[in-house]
Amino acid sequence: MPSVAAATVRPVRRVAGRVRLAGDKSISHRYALVASLATGRSTIGSYSSGADCAATLDCLRRLGVDVTSSRAEDGTLRVEIAGRGLRGFQFPGAEPSKALDAQNSGTTMRLLTGVLAAQPFMTRIKGDVSLSRRPMTRVTEPLEHMGAVIASNNGYPPLVIHGSSRIHGITYKTPVPSAQIKSAILLAGIQADGTTTVVESVQTRNHTELALRAFGAVVSTEGARVALTGGQQLQGGHFVVPGDISSSAFWAAAAAALPGSDVEIENVGLNPTRTALLDVLRRAGAVVDIQVEHEAGGEPSGRVRIRHGRRGALSLGADEVPLLIDEIPALAAWATHGNELRVTGAVELRVKESDRISALVRGLQALGADVDEFSDGFHVRGARKLKGGQADAVGDHRLAMAFAIAALGAQGPSMIAGADSVAISYPEFFATLEQLCG
Q: How many CA atoms lie less than 13 Å away from 27 in the CB half-sphere?
């Protein structure tokens, strides 16, 4: 899809139709990274089409991994990776011009840092301006406890990773619920001496644990406690990534918000650690039907149908936020359509691709919403119909999509500045929006 620097969104009465999504971004990253540590070749079908996941592949190529990609007959992206085994990467060079580039992808930087902590050479990894403002200490600290030495810019990228082939397992309690922290530690731990254990206060998405198991590792889980023994050999194979439920959140929010709407999403991932959005939309009055059709590698997938039911109100606190962290912008858009949403305990949103609390509030206010900002969240009161206007997504893909969904219920057209940022996770977004509004 061509770049859309700014997009105009016009009001509609309803959305309807079927959507088939590209592969899940979180799972695509993890399959690629684990495949690179495995022995033998792996094929990954329906790999994410987003720029973030392409950044992971580019970094792996720079580390000597043979990665090829092509389009399958159905148009989805197919990736083939020749695994190099544990500690089998090649030295990429440390000069600034040769640094690995994670671009805008925090997942690439944090998870790859875990992998590189056990590689016996120095690696420099950088990102774009937005990623360079995202904190990395939460990942580098436990990896240094395991034996790596990692330099940073006062806790921010770029990172210089002095890996060690003798890192050792640790038991680590994560300071904030974060699947990225857990995953970085586990990806280092599979290469470490001894046992690595991660304890979370709230269980986060478990795609890394499932991916490691799918490639042959033994990973034990007990509630929010995950453990594995280092040195286990991983074996390549054939994997298919289910559709991205975080991308589907915007269609679910639109269907739940607009009377008469009916949207069916096909082949979407239904991992229980990712479906909290569907639960809260149902709780708020939407009609949500779920049908599990497949399960591969521990990842269930199927179809979801969402219809408008009644207006509703939601209050989300720190106990629910970790399992909804990527979907909160979509829920904020839902709230502007005559609903209400109060979010607290979500300070983590301030260190995403943007300060998602402030930028979300500013953008919705620019469209005419009644929104208050808190230090750890916000309150959207949707009784006042949006007028339309110009909202700035500040380079944040999830905000661009959220503003577009909110704009569907405005009195007049809206302009979304920075709409081209959707390419980070969902390049097909605006084409699909047009299809559902047609």
A: 32
User: Which residues make Cβ contacts (< 8 Å) with residue 74, sequence separation at least 6?
Assistant: none
CA 91, CA 33: separation in Å to the nearest integer?
A: 17
The DSSP code sequence of 311-349 is --EEEE-TTTGGGTTTTHHHHHHHHTTT-EEEE-S-GGG
Cβ proximity of 50 and 326 under 8 Å: no
Q: Which domains does the chain have, with CATH numbers?
A: 6-22+242-437 (3.65.10.10), 25-234 (3.65.10.10)
Can you tell me whether residue 277 is helix, strand or coil? helix
Task: Decide: residue 261, CB within 10 A, 0-12 exposed, 13-18 middle, 19+ buried.
Answer: buried
Catalytic residues: 326
Dihedral angle, C-alpha 257, 258, 263, 267, nearest 10 °: -20
The pLDDT of residue 351: 78
Using H for helix, E for strand and C for coil, what is the string for 98-148? HCEECCCCHHHHHHHHHHHCCCCCEEEEECCCCHHHCCCHHHHHHHHHCCC
pLDDT of residue 1: 34
How many Cβ atoms are within 10 Å of 90's Cβ, its own excluded?
Answer: 12
**pLDDT at residue number 94:** 54
pLDDT at 321 (0 to 100): 94
- Distance separating alpha carbons of residues 281 and 259, to the nearest angstrom: 14
The pLDDT value recorded for residue 97 is 55
**CB neighbours (10 Å) of residue 58?**
16
Which stretches of the chain drop beneath a pLDDT of 50?
1-3, 96
Q: Which residues contact 276 (CB under 8 A, 6 or more apart)?
A: 320, 323, 324, 327
Q: How many CB atoms lie within 10 A of CB 93?
A: 15
Burial of 438 (0-12, 13-18, 19+ CB in 10 A): exposed
Entry field: residues in the chain: 438
148: tokens are: 């790596």
Read off the tokens for 71: 């389009």
* Cα separation, 257 vs 285, whole angstroms: 10
* Cα 265 to Cα 303: distance, rounded to the nearest angstrom: 6
In angstroms, rounded to a whole number, what is the distance separating the alpha carbons of residues 15 and 17?
A: 7
Which helix (H) or strand (E) covers residue 392, if one does? Answer: strand 390-392
| Cα–Cα distance, 304 to 246 (Å, whole number) | 13
How many whole angstroms separate alpha carbon 389 and alpha carbon 364?
9
- pLDDT value for 353: 81
